[in-house]
Write a structure and sequence with these properties.
single chain, 4-stranded antiparallel beta sheet, 3-stranded antiparallel beta sheet, about 15% helix
């Protein structure tokens, strides 16, 4: 009886859990002067970012290349820190006819190897959570 009650409580609790949304992109208008643009979302690697300059007349995006067109400073380079994010710094300031679009596009390859019949007490919960995010 206790087991059935516990399962019922867990199912009810899960059903009413809060679903949160997370911002995973940032947009800015170029002004021909500013070269630094902040983003407020976590990344694992700077290569997880895609930075584009969008021509505001045609709407055509041009993907920029890290180290050639911009650099990334991401001190809080972690999804779970209180203030994740960083700064993209362009070599040349985007013009007034360009929109800066920064978004996260992480690799979708899972690197955690869970062997068949592995004991869950041998799996690091933090590693498992990282893979599920």
């Amino acid at each position: 009886m206790k087991q059935k009650l516990l399962i019922s409580l867990l199912l009810c609790t899960t059903a009413f859990a809060t679903v949160t949304t997370e911002v995973t992109d940032a947009r800015y208008d170029g002004d021909g002067a500013d070269t630094t643009f902040d983003f407020a979302f976590g990344i694992y690697n700077t290569s997880d970012l895609i930075v584009q300059l969008i021509n505001e007349t045609t709407g055509v995006p041009t993907t920029q290349t890290e180290t050639t067109h911009y650099t990334v400073s991401a001190v809080n380079n972690n999804y779970w820190k209180t203030a994740p994010g960083g700064t993209v710094t362009f070599v040349t300031a985007p013009t007034t006819s360009q929109e800066v679009y920064i978004f996260r596009n992480p690799e979708t390859i899972q690197s955690l190897n869970l062997k068949k019949y592995s004991q869950m007490n041998q799996v690091n919960p933090k590693s498992l959570e990282d893979q599920l995010n």
